[in-house]
Design brief:
Helix content: 25-40%
Number of strands: 18
Order of helices and strands: EEEEEHHEEEEEEHHEEEHEHEHEEH
Shape: globular
Distance between the termini: 51 Å
Oligomer: single chain
Radius of gyration: 22 Å
């Protein structure tokens, strides 16, 4: 059985998602969400947007999160209307995240008169034949600078019988740009040392990338007043910017998973910059860590290897029910996004079709 963190009468694990008028999506539903959820599909099918929608609601439930979603993929100034499907700001954005017995909904409206974006988050709790509703309002200026916030500081914490938990607050979005945030990676490594997890982390890196398992914070020769992370490689000490994108992305992903508990990780294209050999070690380690730390994973990928590795890890008995693989497809005419959970047979057919499309081979010769 999947262990769930229980707040009062409801468990902290996303079970469903409903999206309307958000970015490239006019409407989409994701049902029966599991512990590990993998989204596959063609480019621009809105796989990442589905994850962004869930992540935005979690962040809006206690603070401001929409601005980070708007600017995540670009370093250029972005307009607030880019949050709306087809830039149609007359229609409200509506995103609902479902838990067992609880729905957290975020509705975003555009106030043309004042040049503001109003984000209202509501938490609906069912029980005793009645529904209790808790609200909070965040007002952004049109450039997404925060104007004001009111209501409950953290919606989850006002739920009846709720403990002060961290599912929403600690949820993390990890994408390819994160690997270049060396300050973030060093912060994660520092926390690993403080928690006594540095040796386990170092041993894993050693197995995957053949680095020395020991690493330290030491003065950088060009910035002697700054202590930076350095790893042993051969007879040399190498600082983080001396390593390739693949090892930095792996360090970020594995380190974050080891530090996180009872929360969600949203991982975009887990195969980024990874050799198949490193993926073969990363995926089982991440899957084991998610079980140990009660992590719910949301992952996009274009790699059949990633899916096969997760399938292999969750292949027996009750383990199968923890893994969901969704095929995502988008209707270009109306923006509707279909998210279909695949059976083992359907996934095998998908693999076959991919191979046929790539290499042009057929399973049967036609006369």
């Amino acid at each position: 059985m999947l262990r769930k963190t229980v707040w009062g009468s409801w468990s902290i694990m996303i079970t469903g998602l409903h999206i309307e008028n958000f970015k490239g999506i006019s409407e989409s539903k994701v049902d029966e969400i599991g512990m590990v959820n993998i989204f596959i599909g063609k480019n621009d099918s809105c796989k990442s947007t589905i994850m962004e929608a869930a992540y935005a609601v979690l962040k809006e439930s206690y603070s401001s999160g929409l601005s980070s979603v708007v600017s995540r993929r670009t370093h250029l100034p972005t307009g607030s209307r880019e949050l709306w499907y087809g830039y149609k700001i007359d229609n409200d954005i509506s995103i609902s995240v479902f838990f067992d017995g609880v729905r957290v909904a975020t509705r975003v409206t555009y106030d043309k008169r004042h040049g503001q974006i109003n984000s209202t988050s509501s938490l609906f709790v069912k029980g005793g034949g009645a529904t209790r509703v808790f609200d909070r309002l965040t007002i952004y200026q049109s450039n997404f600078s925060l104007s004001t916030s009111s209501g409950a500081s953290h919606l989850f914490r006002v739920a009846p019988g709720a403990k002060k938990e961290n599912y929403a607050e600690d949820a993390t979005f990890i994408d390819s740009s994160s690997r270049n945030d060396l300050q973030l990676i060093e912060s994660i490594l520092g926390q690993l040392k403080l928690r006594g997890l540095d040796l386990d982390f170092g041993n894993f890196l050693s197995q995957v990338f053949e680095t020395d398992p020991r690493w330290e914070f030491m003065p950088h020769p060009d910035f002697p007043d700054q202590y930076r992370v350095a790893l042993s490689k051969g007879n040399n000490r190498v600082f983080l910017n001396g390593f390739g994108d693949g090892i930095r992305f792996c360090m970020l992903l594995i380190g974050r998973s080891m530090l996180s508990e009872n929360t969600a990780l949203f991982i975009e294209e887990i195969e980024n910059n990874q050799h198949p050999d490193s993926l073969a070690k990363m995926v089982p380690f991440l899957a084991d860590t998610s079980k140990k730390n009660n992590l719910q994973l949301f992952i996009t990928t274009h790699s059949p290897l990633v899916m096969r590795l997760f399938e292999e890890h969750f292949k027996t008995g009750g383990e199968k029910s923890k893994l969901r693989i969704y095929r995502v497809s988008r209707n270009e005419r109306n923006g509707a996004v279909q998210c279909t959970a695949l059976t083992e047979e359907e996934l095998a057919e998908w693999f076959t079709k991919v191979d046929q499309d790539l290499f042009g081979w057929k399973t049967e010769e036609k006369e």
